[in-house]
Amino acid sequence: MPRLLSFAGLTLLLGITFAPFTFAQQPTQEYQAYEDALARGERHANVWQYGWAGVYATTLAVNAYQASEANDRDDRYDARVGVVKSALALAGTLMDRQPHPAAYRELREGDGDIASARRLLHAVAEEERQRRSLEARLGSLLVNTASGLLIGVGDGRGRDGAINFATGMLVSELQLQTQPRQASVAINRFKPARVSLGDIHLEGEYALLVTPNQVGVALRY
User: Fold this and answer.
1) Among 92, 105, 86, residue whose Cα is nearest residue 39
2) DSSP secondary structure string, 90-142?
3) Which residues of 158-186 are buried (b: 16+ CB within 10 A; e: fewer)?
4) 37: containing domain
5) Is residue 9 one of the residues assigned to a domain?
6) At how many degrees (to 10) do helices 100-109 and 27-69 cross?
7) Is 151 contained in some domain?
8) What's the structural domain count of the chain?
9) Are the beta carbons of 86 and 60 closer than 8 angstroms?
10) Is 52 contained in some domain?
11) What is the Cα–Cα distance from 190 to 221, expressed in whole angstroms?
């Protein structure tokens, strides 16, 4: 008997905690999910931009000091190369802004249309992908190759030039990979779905929605 009561209590608790599954299209929840994704993307973008700007500003100041004050001649030469690299990286970080803040403002100032929100989020997600593409790495590749050649060939220190190139590419890749990607994650929540009922075939997308008191499935068709 105690086991039966415990089982009944557990069933009641689960029934209170998790509302019945909801299988319906929920554009309001979808819109809120997009708005939340862009809000988090805006915060991430600001932290990313100011954080990396701080890193490059610090390295610029250190290299500028080392370029004239370092005791070793090689250190002074490397620091002068570093000044140029840090200045270019700082300018690029400050001028090339992430799309999330502007997209979030546009969404908040819009009329709440779900189709417009989808198009906006897809556009931001596409820019996120472009910022991680091979083309996005070409600029850092050129700068780091030039700096490596200046040290390795121009100054006759091949090993130091290779280290400078590898370190620069590693930092550039880290900066690239830490960019916000909230729009891509929000878009990828929806997966293709196909339902067949006899001769009726429905195609659309579904996403699992989890809230503190409800587990459901949103259908988009």
Assistant:
1) 105
2) HHHHHHS--SHHHHHHHHHHS---HHHHHHHHHHHHHHHHHTTSTGGGHHHHH
3) eebbeebbeebbebbeebeeebbbbbbeb
4) 17-220
5) no
6) 150
7) yes
8) 1
9) yes
10) yes
11) 11
Q: DSSP readout, 14-59?
A: HHHHSBPP-EE--HHHHHHHHHHHHHHHHHHHHHHHHHHHHHHHHH
Cα distance between residue 125 and residue 172, in whole Å: 21
For 141-185, the pLDDT digits (tens) are 999 999 999 999 999 999 999 999 999 999 999 999 999 999 998
- Provide the pairing of β-strand 191-197 with 200-211: antiparallel
CA 142-145-150 angle, 5° bins: 125
Tokens of 76: 């002074």
The tens digit of pLDDT for each residue in 84-132 reads: 999 999 999 999 899 999 999 999 998 888 889 999 999 999 999 999 9
The three state secondary structure string of 150-212 is HHHHHCCCHHHHHHHHHHHHHHHHHHHHCCCCHHHHHHHCCEEEEEEECCEEEEEEEEEEEEC
Concatenating the DSSP letter of every residue in 48-101 gives HHHHHHHHHHHHHHHHHHHHHH-SSHHHHHHHHHHHHHHHHHHHHHHHS--SHH
Quote the pTM value. Answer: 0.73
Q: Is residue 204 part of a domain?
A: yes
